[in-house]
Amino acid sequence: MQRIRLRYTKRGRLRFTSHRDFQRAFERALRRSEVPMAYSAGFTPHPKVSYANAAPTGTGSEAEFLEIALTEARDPEVLRGLLDASMPAGLDIVDAVEARTSGLAERLTASVWEMRLDGVDPEDVRTAVAAFNDAETVEVQRKAKNGIRTFDARAAVADLRVVDAPADRPGERPCAILRLVVRHVTPAVRPDDVLSGLRAVADLAPPVPAAVTRLAQGLFDEESGTVTDPLAPDREAAPTAHPAVAGAAVATAPEGAGSA
């Protein structure tokens, strides 16, 4: 049995696709592409697809991951192209590797998020970010199944800063762009929880909902403060092609072969 790991996106209007909607679209793509899927046992067999830490509905993403199990070996890049062609534009399959290591989910320990705050002056956001970063704890509340839950949003945030936004056109409202690195903890701290924290510490309240996009997710490197590519270990574990074969492949390859 071969396992393939895929990275996919949620862009544009497709950011409002629920996880269940994506599952249905992806399973249709598997059938259209005639992928030799492995199935679970039992009375209602299902294709063996494992999803890892899906982004909330309404959130864009450049870094969603899943793993599929096949009964016959396939070239990961060819398979990626077939599946991508069968998916709606915006739900794009952008990367594929053969799984050669264990524990993909265990390597998803943090996410890099971007929040666009339209109608908010960047200087006001910088003041709020400084107050958030200086705080030891920032308690926020979220509605849960068992009522209102209170938790600390500060401890999970490894980095929070304001980054330069594209130059505004004449007459356009101000805009602030936040970049944050959030560890995956329990309870999960989401970008909207951080926004609630900014409201709590500095009364920052954007006039319109923030546009949120996950830029990356993977293993958090405590030393550098960066989030690494979770598929890199599988690439590194792949057998290296013989130099002569690799050279021939490059010589005969045809030419020419984001942000939500």
Question: How would you sum up this structure, described in words?
Answer:
This is DUF2344 domain-containing protein. Strand 10 and strand 11 form a beta hairpin. The protein has helices at residues 19-32, 76-85, 122-134, 191-202, 232-237, 243-252; strands at residues 2-10, 49-52, 60-70, 93-98, 110-118, 139-144, 147-152, 157-163, 175-183, 211-221, 226-228. The chain folds into two domains: 1-104, 2-Layer Sandwich (Alpha-Beta Plaits), CATH 3.30.70; 107-226, 2-Layer Sandwich (Alpha-Beta Plaits). Helix 1 crosses helix 2 and helix 3 (122-134) crosses helix 4. Helices cover 25% and strands 31% of the residues. The protein is elongated, with a radius of gyration of 21 Å. The protein has 260 residues and is of the alpha+beta class. Strands 1, 2, 3, 4, 5, 8, 9, 10 and 11 form a nine-stranded mixed β-sheet that branches. The protein has a two-stranded antiparallel sheet with strand order 6-7. Mean pLDDT is 89; it is low at 242-260.
Biggest sheet descriptor: 9 strands, mixed
CATH class of the largest domain: Alpha Beta
What's the end-to-end separation, in Å? Answer: 35 Å
Number of domains: 2
The radius of gyration over CA amounts to 21 Å
Instruction: Assign the CATH architecture of the largest domain.
Output: 2-Layer Sandwich
Order of helices and strands: EHEEHEEHEEEEHEEHH
Strand content: 25-35%
Number of helices: 6
- Described by its quaternary structure, the protein is single chain
Low-confidence stretches: 242-260
* Total E-strand runs: 11
**Helicity level:** 25-40%
- Structural class of the helices, strands and pairings? alpha+beta
